[in-house]
Amino acid sequence: MNYKHNPDDRSDNVEKLEDMIQNTMENIEAAEETLEFASGDERNAIKEKNQRRQESIESFKNEIQDEKQARENGFE
């Protein structure tokens, strides 16, 4: 087999990460809306999942900063 290496295209990583943040925030909001209808165990699970989502958002923000810095350093 003949494999070709695909070049690393980072040109739209910041935009993709920003979309991921927006989607995650929407998921948090939707989950919060379901809390009033959830039982005790379900409420705990939703809160824990939203906490993990918040942590993911922070990671995405850090990645955005890394990508912006990479762009400034000549990676596109």
TrEMBL record:
The keyword Transmembrane appears for this protein: no
Reported induction: Expressed only in the forespore compartment of sporulating cells.
Region (Disordered): 36-76
Record bears the keyword Transmembrane helix: no
Localization: Spore core
Keyword terms of this UniProt record: Sporulation
Family the entry assigns: Belongs to the Tlp family.
The name this protein goes by in its record: Small, acid-soluble spore protein Tlp
